[in-house]
Amino acid sequence: MKITVLGTGSWGTALAQVLADNGQEVLMWGISEDEVNDLNQNHHNSKYFEAPVNENVKATMDLAEAKDSDVLLAAVPTMALENVLTQVAGIAEKPVIVINVAKGFHPVSHKRLSEVIREIMPKDKLKAVVSLIGPSHAEEVIIRLMTAINAVSDDEEAARTVQELFSNEYFRVYRNDDVIGAEVGVALKNVIAIASGILEGIGQGDNARAALMTRGLAEMTRFGTAMGGREETYLGLDGVGDLIVTCTSRHSRNFMAGYQIGSDGGAAKFFAENKKTVEGVFACKVVYEEAKKRGIEMPITEQIYAVLYEGKDPKEAARSLMARKLKPETSGVYEKR
Questions:
Q1: pLDDT at 172 over 70
Q2: Nearest Cα to Cα of residue 75 among 144, 128, 10
Q3: Three-state SS across 55-99?
Q4: Fewest Cβ atoms closer than 10 Å to its Cβ: which of 20, 45, 227, 295?
Q5: Range 180-322: architecture per CATH
């Protein structure tokens, strides 16, 4: 199988190495000459990692080299996904499996990324869409630390193919057919991760973050099931699993964005200086707007939206959550007695 990784960023590089470790033919495509040359000549992607990259990973700036691929792994920023896949669709010689690894929503249509991919790729060029998502940091995968994630698709055969392509002694892939639930979960956890970083930035401790993650999981589940996902998904890798890793690690861009915002006392400096893709910033706006439209209670998301887009002080946002009307933790708890 020929597999092309679209994008030469950190996650695309780490996943390309997993494939190369498994003996797969893998080619990376990117627009950065420095990154492409670094991969080909030095077997490194020094912009992101100190660790070397499997020497069988090759890279190119010529997208035409992807025309005969069997599998395309889309590891470009969400904002670039449409443009890149439109170009690929124009040159693809046969139907391909498209693997999505981004976690978010389309910034305008609010659609999930698998939906966006299906709209871009002509039916005669698309075999299936699989989202490869779950609790994972590229910084750990590149040095082959143990990781487990999900191949999510309504096409079981394609999900199984992806599972078999990537699984090895340090990288384990499960299958999940709850496409809506999983894609919503991994997008919304980025919003909660920003909140977690804010708590650390304003000087709060483990108690506060434990409460945030727990109530954040309830919020994810409430929103995800309202969108059509299954409740049990949020107790799995694409729910609580991804929530834990993103809310507790300094490898997380969303956590670190929140930490900066909390430390600075607001989001203005972050927006003025940030040059990285922080998916939770965009996801927060989408989730906030969709929740308002559908009447879904999302107190954490509402406060993070206020900090990001309305200039609210992070400490005041935290106080607002603590001052909400007192209630049972779960609905109907007393009625069942």
A1: yes
A2: 10
A3: CCCEEECCHHHHCCCCEEEECCCHHHHHHHHHHHHHHCCCCEEEE
A4: 295
A5: Orthogonal Bundle (1.10)
Q: What is the pTM of this model?
A: 0.93
Tokens representing 220 are 């994810």
Tracing tokens 């996943």 back to the chain, one arrives at 15
**Maximum distance among all Cα pairs of the chain, rounded to whole angstroms:** 69
Name the nearest CA neighbour of 36 among 63, 14, 12, 60.
Answer: 60
Decide: 44 and 53 in contact? Cβ < 8 Å: yes
CA 194 – CA 280 distance, rounded (Å): 7
Q: Which residues are known to be catalytic? A: 189
Q: Which of 165, 172, 69, 179 is nearest to 126 (CA)?
A: 69
Tell me the backbone φ, ψ of residue 161, rounded to 5 degrees. -60, -50
Domain ranges of the chain: 2-177, 180-322
In this structure, what token pair is assigned to residue 262? 């909390």
pLDDT of 107-142, one tens digit each? 788 899 999 999 999 999 999 999 999 999 999 999
What whole-number distance in Å separates Cα of residue 50 and Cα of residue 322? 42
Please state the rounded mean pLDDT for residues 23-47: 96
| Plot region of 76 (φ>0 → left; ψ -120 to 50 → alpha; else → beta) | beta
Lookup result for tokens 């030469």: 8
Give the residue carrying structure tokens 């993103």: 246
CB atoms within 10 A of CB 181: 26
β strands within the chain, DSSP E = 2-6, 25-29, 58-60, 71-74, 96-100, 126-133, 147-152, 171-176
Give bridge partners of residue 59 from the DSSP assignment: 28
CATH of 2-177, one of 2.40.10.120, 3.40.50.720, 3.40.50.1820, 3.40.1280.10: 3.40.50.720
Collapsed DSSP state (helix, strand, coil) of residue 101: coil
Question: Which pair of tokens denotes residue 247?
Answer: 């809310």
